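Posting for a labmate who doesn't have an account.
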Amino acid sequence: MGPGNCSAVIEAVAGLLVLLLCMSCAFAGVESFCDGRQNGTLCFGPLGGTVCVKLVDSVSESQSYQIKHTASIILKIRKNEVILGPLSDKYHLILSNGTFSIGNLKMTDAGEYVLEIFDSDGKMKERRTFHLSLEVPVTSVQLFAECLSQGQVNVSCLSEGGNNPRYSWTLNGQKPSSRELLSGNSESNTIVLRPNVAGRLVCSVRTNANTLLKEKITSTCHFVNCTSNGVHISKWVFKDNNTRCVELLPQTHNIMALLPIVSGALGALLIILLVSIGIFCMKKKKPNYKEENNYGQNQTSADQVRRRQELSRDIPAEYGKVKKQPRRSDDVIYGNMDNSVYGNVDDSIYANL
């Protein structure tokens, strides 16, 4: 490969890098693009960033070009060869599409730029200008969403940097309609979505220098009444909220939740009942010898009394007459005994035999 071919390859690679840099304007947040093919175009560039200016459709080999800033030539093109000035690391030109870029923008880079085009004879064929104005770019964009008291979703788009930023919104790729927006509009930095409205929400922040986008996937809200780490939570939260908490039981208790407790109590009562029945049965089967002995003694005494009563009723009484025997002569009489002492004693004595 010859030196000319190597130079062409290097130039093509450098041009591709610059093109990719310019194409990333909408994503990097520190670059901007401007179409300078019309004379007197006003271009805006971000401080500290890069501006890409489209000067011509393509660079012709039969023509020569030069770009001036504050009356100083900063770049020349002759026969498709780029000749850079002393700040070669700051300026770039893509020959294939005629895009001129300025990097690491400072306030000294603002002002008027002049493009001069010459024919093959060296005569000026065209002269155009563009003016470059520098602004502080938007450096970051954040989206904050929260649930409101009735399930609405409040979304705020906050940006840093930028002069007079402008906002725009899309929901699922479309501008939000009045049926989806409760308050705010697509050009304010805060909007309120109606309940049960969710999806891919994108906030775009634009300035004259750059544009930044921020995307957020929102979900619908639902009300929770629970405790988390001992703290009571009672508010509206997103359904995809990962707060770990224990839901409080409603006033009408959940039967399925109470079922294990009720089953355990019934099981304990059943065990106690079975043990009580077993003890009762064992005591009932064990003989009580003391009671049996007392019962036997009582029974024997009753039988004896009953027998005596039966004998006293069944045996008739017999009465007989006992005759007094005449006193014999040999009877010894002690003292003076006569009938007067003992009274009248009948000669006949009846005895109950």
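Reply:
Got it, the structure tokens are right above this. Residues 2-29, 329-353 have pLDDT under 50 and may be disordered.
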